[in-house]
Structure formats: structure tokens, C-alpha cells
Amino acid sequence: MMSPVDQHSLLSIAIIARDEERYIAGCLRSVAGLSSDILVIVDDQTRDATATIAQAHGARVLIERWRGFSAQRNLALQRCRGEWVLFIDADERLTPALFVEIATLMHVGPPADIAGYRIPRYNLFFGQRLRGGGWYPDFQLRLLRRDAATYDEHVAVHEVASLQGAVALLSGHLLHLNIERLDELWQKQARYAFAEAMMLYRAGRRMRLRNLIGAPAREFWRRYVQLGGWRDGGLGLFLCATLAWHEVVKFTMLYGLQQREST
Question: What is the pTM of this model?
């Protein structure tokens, strides 16, 4: 049996943040006591009190220029001190069950062949916890052995770490305060649409008229029918339709990038 280890020196916690004063304190309260090394990398374009609030909660704060999500996560892996790194976003919280599970795991010491842990996540939209549409169980690969993980910096959004080693599963949940206002939903999806359009453009993809019909139809069918978005009632229908519409937005943005080639 392994000897207990000091979880505080074994584990670091990393947060990538920009203009997160509304959420950052709650996030940091949810991880308080889990690690003595909490690193918050704040985008240098931040204009609110994110950095000040993070420091008041005992976090190390780095002010860095924005390089993209993957690059910021790689920077966090370099700057963290623990053998393991838990990534959590400012609008996420550890549930009490997940807190205890990670603390116990770090106290005992993870198996040597495990390089990362996937964590199920609850998503809240407008205060409602979703059950379908791909928003649950929404596994996130967030607890990583630092020297075995890296992120592909060509991936602009929805980045996932590449690991040298096996992946295991935790049972405790993250809680994601995903969307609370309608304008947040549209702004967030527009940002994702543009980032995905850029990825397609750089990969050599070009918009075809059929994309404006086929892509949203497939996305709606996948979300609402195959992934059970119907289980969330009217909100599920609305969210699945919104994501389908942003497939149109994405390919329209891709078309705009194509048009720049000829100017």
C-alpha cells in the first residue's frame, strides 16, 4: 500500500481568466484548502478586478498576453509547481463530492500508470441543470499529470490535452454556471463560431451552399434527437436550435474569410 503524500505539494490548481470578477471568487472558494498552489493566468486585456480578487483569495496571479486557450494551458502546465494540475474555469465549481474525491486521491497518490482523469460536469443554463443535448455528462479531461500532458496550440477552442499514459474517470462532478443571460449565450456562440471558422479556413475548408442547410440540420438532429435534448423541454429545444443556427453563422464567417482572398 502506498504511503500517504502531501496533497498540497502534489497538486496545483490552474485557472485561465479574463474579466471574470463575477465568478472568480466563487470558483476559488470551491477549491479552498485543496492545494497550496493556485495559479490564475489573467489575460492582459482584462479590465475588471479579476486579478485583485484572485490575489485576495491567496492565488498566484500572472498577467499574460492572450495566446489562445491551448497556449495558455501549456503555460499553466509550465508554471505550476505540483506533479498534478487541476484545470478549472472561473465559472465552474467543485462540488463537495468532487472536492473530497480529489483530496483523497492526492492524499493516497494516483497510480503510476495514470496520466489524467476525466470529470463529469453539470451544465446550468438559465439556472436549469441540463440532462440531454450533449451537456451531460459532458466529461472534461481536467486533472492531469503535469509532465505527461500537452495541448495542441493549433486548436483554438474546445481544446483537450494529449497525454502520455492512461486516462481514468472520477465520479464527483464539476458544476458549470454556463449561461445566465441571453446575450451571454449569443456572444459566446458567436465567438466559438468565429474560432471554428478560422480553424476550418486554415485547414483548407471552404464554404459550400449546402453547408448552410446540411450543417445546421445535422447539428439540430444530433443535439435534439441523438443526444436527447428533448429531455430538457422548451429550454432544450431552444438551445439545440441556437447551436444549429450558429452552424449557419460559422459557415457564413468562413465565406467572409474566403472573400478576403480575392480582395
Answer: 0.88
